[in-house]
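Complex 225.
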Amino acid sequence: MGRGGRLAILGALFAMSVGLVVFTVMAFLRSSPPTVDFTTGHQAGTPVDLTVQTVGSIGFGPHPTWVSYLTETPGGQWVHTTLWDLPAHTRINVTLDQYDSGSPLRNQQLGQIIGTEGTVATYNGKPESVIDSNDTNGVGHTFTIPTLGISVPLVGISPNAKNPCSVAPCTSKYDHNVIRFSFMTPGPGQYPWQCFVPCGLAYLYGNGGPMQTVGYMDGFLKVVA
Ligand SMILES: [Cu+2]
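Predicted structure with copper (II) ion bound:
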């Protein structure tokens, strides 16, 4: 083969590899967890029930060891996502099944329940306005919507739990705490929410990995009119 032919092949291979890199980057940027829709069929003025769970390790997908939130659809299906379409100016009744363990908070302020209706959350039926993470099983995560001033600490299961869940979605036969609270959605807009407990094990100060990834410890309320 002549020099021109070899150059042409080299050029073609180079173009293909550039194309592959561009495709991979675009695919990564496009990838996003699904959004669970709580607006279709919603009757204005009636509350929306939102059920989510936290797990110590998701157990599947590209990061099986990562901590994560999951969302139950109105149809009762568990989906690995943290994105929700919610109606505006609506009471959201949250049920949060916490299957993960906890530890003492680095920042005790995150033990406060703020911004919820009545400034309370119930823990296995018991109303609380502040959690002492040194006096309980500790706190595994928070559910926090910074722009709405809402934050709820999620008390962990006992470190001696007999029946912890290892692969999500977890069912109620596994050890868990049920945390309930309500809040009002504001007007339309995108409101980020996240966990503020550095729970990204094996990442710098626990703040990388799942702490920085939508679908795991971060999400959005997509509030629509
Ligand atoms: Cu967390």
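The chain has a mean pLDDT of 94.
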